[in-house]
Amino acid sequence: MIKHLHYYLIPIGFFLLAALPSKTYEIYPRKSIQEVYQRAVVQTFDNGTFEELNCEANKKIESLFDAIISSDFLAPNSNTAYEKNDKEASNTRNQDVDIIEDNCTLIETSTTFQCNQDGTYSVITEVTGTNGTFEIQDNVDLASSIIAVPDPFVLNNAGAPFPMLNGAAIVTYPAGVDYDFSIVEVSQVPINYADCTLNISGPSPIPSSCDDGLCSTNDYINEACQCVNEPIEEPSCDDSNCTTFDYYNANICECVNDPITPPSCDDFDCTTADSYNIETCICVNEPIDPPNCDDGDCTTEDFYNTGTCECINETITPPNCDDNNCTTNDYYDATICECVNESIDPPNCDDADCTTIDSYDNLLCECVNEPIDPLTCDDGDC
Question: Residues 243, 280: contact at Cβ < 8 Å?
Answer without folding.
Answer: no
